[in-house]
Predict the structure.
Amino acid sequence: MTLLTNIGKKTSVPAVHVLVIAVSDYPFLDQGSSKRPLTPNGGLGQLKSPVASAEVLCRWLRSTFRPKKLPLGSIEVLCSAGGTFYDDQGQLIAVSPPTMKNARKAISAWAARGDEHEDSFLMLYFCGHGVSSGIVHSLLLEDFGNDKNDPFNTGAIDADGLMDGMRTKAACSQLFLFDACRTVEHSAFANFGGQRGAAVVSAPPNVRLGIVEQACLWATSLGALAYGVPGHESVFMGALLHAMQGGGAMQDANDGRWVIQPDVLKRAIDHIIQRIPQFSTSGLQFSVLDRMVRGFPVHALPGGPSVPVKVQCNPASRNSMTAFECSSGHKRPMGPSEPWYLDLPVDAYTFEAVAADSATKRVPALPHPPYAIVSFDHP
Amino acid sequence: MTIVSIYLLTPAGSPPGVAVGAMWPASAIGPFRRYEFTLPYGAFDVPHSHGFESGNYWIQLKLDTGEIVRELVVIPDQTELSIYLDSGPVRVDCDRQENPNNFRSIPQLLDAAGQQPPRISVKSRGLVPPWSATRGRLSLSYGDAVTLTTGRERLRGPIHRPNYFSFPEIGDRQFSLTSLRVRSLHWGSTRGIGERTRNMPLRPTDYFRQVLLSPDRTAMVPIVEGNNVSTSLNAIGDDNLGDYGGPSRPAVRDYALLSGTGGNHRFLIGLPPLNRAHSSKLIVRADRDDPRLVRLSISVDDRSFKSMLEFMNSSDLGSAIHVAASSLPILYAKFDNPLAAVAAGYVLVQAPPHTVKVAWGQWIGNLGHYFPSLPDGKILHATLLLQRGDTGTPDDYVQDHNAYFPAEPHARSMLAASLVIDSLLHGPPVFRAGLALLATNLRILASVQLPHETTSLLEAADRLVTLLSMRVDPRESFCVFRLEKLE
């Protein structure tokens, strides 16, 4: 259990409480350090992105995160070895590994903080292995497989069970970010029967359904993989923080301020992920938003949003023979075959496409979240 | 061969025009035999007589106003049948002497024509009319209703429409269906908890063995070569036509078992029960993620809740709630379409308080009480008991409301436990969302102090629900189970 913040008396007032769980080491899975590996393991092995994802998220939370009307109450982190995290005073701090025991403690403490005030906002980020079967989703912790006879109940979190349990807590706004694979088949684990994992937070009878607003953003669709970049944050985390700059924003109905909303965030993330060349044509990864009914502000932008913009020719084969220019002053010379990606504040712009074999084309555009596409059609 | 006489009844004062009537087998993709009726000015009866093989047929009338009426009719074997299509959407009086057959009730029309309704003999063939078990006399198919005369009792209600199985081409290959069976199964009615304990199957294989091995009633559906047509399949044998079972009667559920080529594609699906007014369509198509696999999905031809289903399937609860809240008739017309009512229930139990400005808790209680063939009603009722406080207290039904929603916490938990168990004893829920709610309700009940007998039963139910949840197709609104995963 590692708190990066000194929460003091912050739990007595509404606040944002964040829990980050990042698992990259799986000693009992493929290529793990344990001499007693779990077999079969379904090909699940070690991960390269979770630690970097947790680091990047914590830095962003400290430097940029502006929850609307609420102070940042706490950041708690469980992370596999290799991460660099700092406390309130900027001192390097060692964080606990994301084992089942530590996760139970951290989640219970986080849930307790969220049970103090109904205006509080809870955020959970998990990055690691995920396994799905049907509508059962398990998030694997570091010691998954330590107990060979019962790896799920002793080393995995039942995602829906956890969210059901959290619904009984006072905090009415809860955001869950699950940056994990959702492979449907895991026949390697079939001999463990119908094990979901531990819900961690119990769910007594309550009257909170319809009152507590939960939004669950999965990094990828069911049955698909969530990708990482070795040594860097995951594809989802990269897109998430990019979208937090404005792609996931909408104007608050009351005061007109730009705030990040989960449903817009999801659309922006999907667009940003498709900017990656490997993902643009294959559609490898699309996020999924679950559970949300009304939506709630996640992050308030200090000013206007920065909107992801895609400029392209139609047909795309003309991209490489066209130079693009925007009235904002941004330019891209001829050459690249992919579309031109840039981010612009909400405003009125004119885009130009200059090609050697045709007259200069101009297109007016008014980029607006979640993204804008400027297309130059060629007959 | 049956001679079918088709009459078109036009109201007095109708302008001249053209109406197009068409009639085709229910198993065919579209009209293959078309009849044109020329409408003269004024009232007129235009009979057209043709010979048809017995079976289920669609009959359609398209007026030049653009109005289309399509109904399913049964052509009995070796007899004569008269069908009346009324082009007047509103009945108005007319000069009966001039045209005595117009604007009269169906029995009057029959009497006037000196006709005796044909007697239907039911044969054990692939497609059995859903009302065949009544062994009644089919009087007439007319408008939105069919009138059945069974002895002294006359039942009147919306016509049953079939379930459809559609096997379109899948990319450059076709899903070759090797067998399709439909079974109808009586699930147990509510009994003592001890008996439930003994009867509670603990494994999905045992649970579904009741379906797989049930000798109750089975219909083998003829597979059409090429899979390019929709095959009409009626929900078989409901002995209680016009009756949804009721709280004291065992529920009947129909299941479709589909086996594809190579034995790799076996599905079990609980058909939307008792489709009195709307047909459903089961579509086999290629899996988006793995083209080697096929997916089975269900669509329902009811516009009133189709959009709601789509929002549910896309996890867009906010939009689904908006649809449900703006469709109050769905909430109250459960006897017309209980399936739509259940879908609305799933949306409403997750809606923020006061989304709907009427008390709907009582309605959920009724749904669970009066529709045992829809286990989802009991699941929703249990969900309200365990997870919501705004069940409302309609003045007219205080007594019922108190029975549905006891104030004492232990009584609420016990009732919820009973509902959860009963729902499972009536088969898996029709909607996938029901499995998720079942899992949540069981988690909640696990934290409640209950009698040991109940607790052990709930633990078994929890294992069963988990295993079912792992085998259900998470991309479908309805529960579609892959049988490979049961083995």
Observations:
- Chain B is about 30% helix and 25% strand.
- The longest helix of chain B spans residues 452-471.
- The longest strand of chain B covers residues 177-187.
